[in-house]
Predict the structure.
Amino acid sequence: MPAMHETVSPKYLALTRLAIQRQFTYRAATLAGLATNFFFGLLRAAVMIALFGARQQVAGMSLADAITYTGVSQACIAFLSLFSWFEIIYSVDSGQVGADLLKPMDYFLFWGAQDLGRALVNLALRGVTVMIFYAIVFDISYPASPGQWAAVLLSLGLAWLVSFSWRFLANLTAFWTPNSLGVCRLLYSLSWFMSGFMMPLRILPEWFARLCALTPFPSMINTPIEVYLGLVSGAQLGQALLTQAAWGLGLILLGKLALRSGVRRLVIQGG
């Protein structure tokens, strides 16, 4: 784990600011992404409406909750970079990784600070816009109290930590194989199903939900959305947030161990 003075160093804050400025230059990509989010959001909401039919509730979720679930998950796509993030792979393939490792920065924080800036902009521009669209088109659910809103924000922050730590670890496969893009795409595809992105885990077979709970993936999507919907509260809420934090810290540790091993391999190969 990095030292505390490292985590608050102005150089990492500067990287985050630069990433924020960079994201604001991608206006066309943002608009195209929003259009895609809206289209698939409508399709996913239609699936939920068909699934519920005349039923008022399924697995403790109302139809409004289920539609909201699709909206929040769509809003998190860009925030958590669910479909693609290959920055470290590209840096290894281009040789830029050598220069990055020589910088007087913690390598994890170097990429984390940049990803945080990217994530914040996408949450503000795409995430909030998607939810406004959903609020206009559908009757959706909202957190019931300021305390619940605070829990949502905390859970979203932890979801980003888990997501980035997972993506960082997955990208490190580039230190061992030239086919790391394919490996990462496979791993990302697995996370879509096991995070609850495709469908709320509570309405899937119990054995599958239990299997997913053994992975960090629900902490990225299912947990923050259930917090948003108020499906977990009291002791369950505290346990859900602690689980997210534990997965985040665990993945950071795994990433640092993998990085140490990968760097040794990179040096041996003359990279």
